[in-house]
């Protein structure tokens, strides 16, 4: 995936509250890689309800995304997980 729309713990630290990530351009896919050795990362589509939990060392890819992706909310439990998030722009 292109790295023009890339986030990690050095650009945006995760907390134990959901943080909204919006793609720079219209996005058709994204990947989240949990680089942490112990902490889980949680994804939400609405910032309230957990949709997916990514265990330490695991990843989650959503491609192709079946609709408009205005953004995703991510948090870590506990706060501070190492991660990589990449959005793939629509062609």
Describe the structure in your own words.
- The protein is mainly beta and 91 residues long.
- It has one domain (6-54, 65-81).
- A four-stranded antiparallel beta sheet has the order 1-8-3-6, with no helix packed on it. It has a four-stranded antiparallel beta sheet with strand order 2-7-4-5, with no helix packed on it.
- It contains no helices and eight strands.
- 0% of the residues lie in helices and 45% in strands.
- The protein has strands at residues 6-8, 19-21, 27-34, 40-44, 50-54, 59-62, 72-77, 83-89.
Record keyword descriptors for this entry.
45% strand; single chain; 8 strands; four-stranded antiparallel beta sheet; globular; 91 residues; mainly beta
What's the short version?
This protein has 91 residues and is an all-beta fold. It has strands at 6-8, 19-21, 27-34, 40-44, 50-54, 59-62, 72-77, 83-89. It contains no helices and eight strands.
Shape: globular
The largest sheet has its strands arranged as 1-8-3-6
- Strand residues, percent: over 45%
Secondary structure class reads: mainly beta
The percent of residues in helical segments reads under 10%
How many structural domains does the protein architecture include?
1
Weakly predicted, low-confidence segments: none
């Amino acid at each position: 995936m292109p790295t023009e729309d890339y986030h990690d713990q050095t650009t945006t630290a995760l907390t134990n509250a959901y943080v909204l990530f919006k793609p720079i351009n219209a996005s058709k896919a994204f990947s989240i890689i949990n680089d942490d050795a112990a902490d889980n990362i949680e994804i939400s589509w609405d910032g309230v309800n957990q949709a997916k939990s990514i265990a330490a060392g695991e990843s989650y890819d959503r491609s192709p995304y079946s609709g408009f992706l205005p953004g995703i909310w991510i948090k870590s439990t506990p706060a501070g997980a190492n991660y990589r998030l990449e959005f793939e722009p629509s062609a």
